[in-house]
What we know:
- By secondary structure, the protein is an alpha/beta fold.
- The protein has 13 helices and 15 strands.
- It has a seven-stranded parallel sheet with strand order 3-2-1-4-5-7-12, sandwiched between helices.
- Helix 1 links the parallel strand 1 and strand 2.
- The protein starts with a strand and ends in a 9-residue tail after the last helix.
- The protein binds uridine-5'-diphosphate-glucuronic acid.
Amino acid sequence: MSKKKVIILGCGGFVGSHLTDRMLASGKYQIEGWDVSYDKISQHLGNDDLTFHQQYVDAATTYSELEPVIAECDAVFSLAAVCTPAQYVASPVKTIQSNFIDAYKLIDFCAEHRKWLIHTSTCEVYGRTLSSYVPEDNYDNLDLYEQREDETPLVMGPTTNHRWSYATAKALFERYIFAHNAENGMPFTIIRPYNWFGARMDFIPGRDGDGIPRVLACFMTALLDGKPMQLVDGGEAYRTITYIDDAVDALMLMLEKPKGSKNQVFNVGNRGGEVTMRELALLMRETAAEITGRDEFLEHPIEEISGEKFYGEGYEDCDRRVPDVKKAESRLDWKAKTSLRETLRITMKYYFDNYGRASGINTQG
Ligand code: UGA
């Protein structure tokens, strides 16, 4: 059987590198991968099933090279994005440009050639929950906070809050996909990830990147550097943490079950992995102690900080993200398998093994 030809935009990123690992291991795919960096996939560069293009995915020149490849491929995964809240607030122009303005041409090309676009959007397009605007509601009514792909309204704060620059750009991108599907029959699949955690996510500031990464890398940096973990606005926000291997299972199933996945939106999240950020900080302290054998991590300092001080003016938070995953279950036969504790154990071991040794922190087992 001939191999399917799949484009991965962002193959060198966190999600892209895990997807590339899995697709190459299956032996069923030929990948045309685009990314500006290849550190996370360097072991695959000699693989005949990977043609790597070292370019910014959103550069104008990339598109002229991309179009003839799109014309010949079976599917396009678009995974590249500016996706850290600190950037939405500090650089809203860049956030909107890279998540929509520099990227919408990809949809035009897929539509022109009637190619299947599999796009990672974000659970952030739902914004805040309706529950958060009902003062007497204490998340008593699931209908007011569970996020259902084809039903739940998008609820965001005012446009003066830059936090929503990303969610609105991503929502417009989704709308443009729907528009091309309706008018030109372009096939698509949209994925809304729920806080996928795993090895190679983000960066550790001062070691392999600058700025403020997402919460996992922020808390890891604090643990590695002996600095307090910072809880934004009391750490009351909830997140639903999903292990990257479970998420990649869903991406592979989408590719393998086109009848179930084409022209659908899917939440990909682990309902069992829901925690507040305060609970996450406490669990990460416990996990750090467990995998390094150092009990002092149990008492690692935690301090509170306001969202405005931590991120800057215009920060607003998503209060809760509970995915309805019935569509992924019924159409793809997918379910998250990995518990939150196991996700943290595997992921944090990776960070300690890769960044901890220089500070004399080793893991056990
Ligand atoms: C981000 C993106 O905006 C989403 O699109 C994406 O789906 C999601 O990450 C993801 O990883 O899947 P968010 O969850 O808000 O959304 O990003 P984080 O930076 O991971 O923040 C999570 C929570 O932790 C927020 O409440 C934040 O205020 C808090 N936080 C973050 C802390 O309390 N301390 C920190 O040091 C960092």
